[in-house]
Amino acid sequence: MNRAREEVSGERAHPSGGAGIPLQEGIDTGGAVPATSTQASFGRSVFICCKPLQFLTCASIVRHYRIEQALVLLVAESIAEYDAFYAFVEASHHRSLFDEIRRVPTQAAAREALGALHYDSLFIDNDRTSKYLLLAPLKTGCLCLYEEGVSTYFSSYLYEMPLSRRLKWSLVALVRGCGLRFGGGRRTDLVFVSRPRTYARLNPRLAHKARYCPGLVGELEQGWEDWQALLSPWLDRLTSATPALVLGTWGGGDISAERLAELKRRHPLLLFKPHPHDGCAWLDADIQVLEQPWIPAEVWIRLLASRVDELVVYHYSSSSELYCLDLLDRVTFVDLKGDVHIRRVCDLAVGDPGHDDIDHVAIA
Question: Is 285 helix (H, G, I), strand (E, B) or coil?
C-alpha cells in the first residue's frame, strides 16, 4: 500500500452540476464498490490524464460527485502544445474544480509523483496490461477507471491481433490481473462512463462496476463560453457554408494522399484536425490544418455545426461520433475504417442517454 507524505487538500465551492455528497476523510473501501453512485465518497482523489479529452472527463466526475479534494497529474509528453492547453485550463471554468493541476513529463513520472501523495481514490484511463501493471500496485482505497473514448465500451484491438499475441495478452491478464477489456482489471473497483447501460450491454460481467458521469459533453457545456471565446475569431473567418472535416489518427498513418485528393474533389473546403498526440500534420498546402491540435475534435465539430449549413466529418472509427450523437440531424459522420464493433457501440448509445441515478445497471 502506498503511504503518502503529502495530502491532496483544499476546499472549494463547487459549481452546479453535481450531486451533493458528503465526503468522508480517510476512505478505505478495501476494493469494495460503493453502494450507490449518488452516495459514494471518494476522499482525497488523484486523476492521471494524458489527453485533453481525458481531463474534461475527469473534471466532469469531480463536478458531478462534488469531490472536494482533487488533484490531476497531466502527462505532458502525450499532449501536443501542452503549454497552450495548460494556459487555457488555468483561465477556464474547469480550473476551479481542482486543488492542483500538476505537470508530469511521462507516465513513469506520474507513478513517481503518486509516491509522494496521500490519496484515497486513484482515477486512471486504462486498466489493461502496461498501464495497469504500472499504476494498480499504487492503489490505496478505490481504483477507478474513467471513460477514455469509444474503446472503453468495447475495444476491437483484441480481435485484430495475431493469434499468438492474443494468447500472450490473455495469459498476462490471467496471471497479473490486467483487464482484457476496459474495467476488467482485478483491482479495478469502478468504471465511470457517460452511458452505463451501453457499457453493461457490451460488458455484462463488468456491469456492476459501471457508474454514470456526464463525461466530455457534460463538461464542455459547463465551460462552453471559454471554448467559444477561444475559437470564435477563427470561425468568423470561415469561408464555406459546407465544409468537411477530416479527423487525423495518431501518427496520421491511416490517411493516404489518394484518399485526401478524393475528398478534396468532393468538398470546396477540406479541414484537417490532427490527433492530440501529434503536432503538425504532414499535409499538402491545399488542405487547411486546424491549429492547436490539443483542442478536442468534439469542440470543433460542435462549433462548426453551429456556424455552417452542412458539415461532413470523416474519421477512422473515432470516438467523436459517439460524443456528437445529438448532432446527427446537422452533421454527417463517415467512418472510413468501418469498425463494426465501434458501430455497434454508437448504435446502442443512441438509445442510452445516460442517467445520474444509477446504482446497479440492469441489462435489457
Answer: coil
